[in-house]
Fold this protein.
Amino acid sequence: MSVFPETSITLLAQMAARTSGDDEAAWVRFFELYAPAIGKFVELQGTGRDPDDVVQEILLKLVDVLRAGRFKPGPVPFRAYLVTLIRRHLVSLWRKDQARGAGLFVPLEEDSASVPPEAAELLDLDWRLAKRRAAVDHVLTKTAVSPQSKAVYRAYALEGRPIGEVAKEFGIPRNSVSQIKTRLDRLVAAIEREMGD
């Protein structure tokens, strides 16, 4: 069983296509899904650089990788490949900083075989948290969910305020608060599934 959803494999194939009309929409969709998570992941690594710039550099490398056919879906999940690509880019930036005498951050080891299991687990957790934050952000900023539902979700699911307090503040029944959380949690999970593993 593949840990990478079928639609994401299709998206990767579209991105690797050589025809400009086919791959442009796929790249836009990929950017919408992955750029926020990559940016948050880069921020968590503490590079001291503008995450947007680093995300652009990483995405340019990914374009080259996919167009050259160097990534093939299979036993290695795309997420693992992408995290390795990100780490290697961060190591490269760190080396450049060291050469200039401006070492701002210390990246994880470049060679994934030398990464201790606990560091690999933390890296995986960082990626999953970044992906979750990006999916929540997508749902709260780029979906047609009502502003009230978004505010209820922020208060109850994200801020952790008691259900009774949130219901009273928004003048809705407690079960409506619960239903809003369940519905938006499903949207967040769908976005995360689209991002792949």
User: Anything to note?
Assistant: Residues 1-7, 109-116 have pLDDT under 50 and may be disordered. Residues 6-142 form one domain. DSSP finds eight helices and no strands in the chain. The two ends are 13 Å apart (CA to CA).
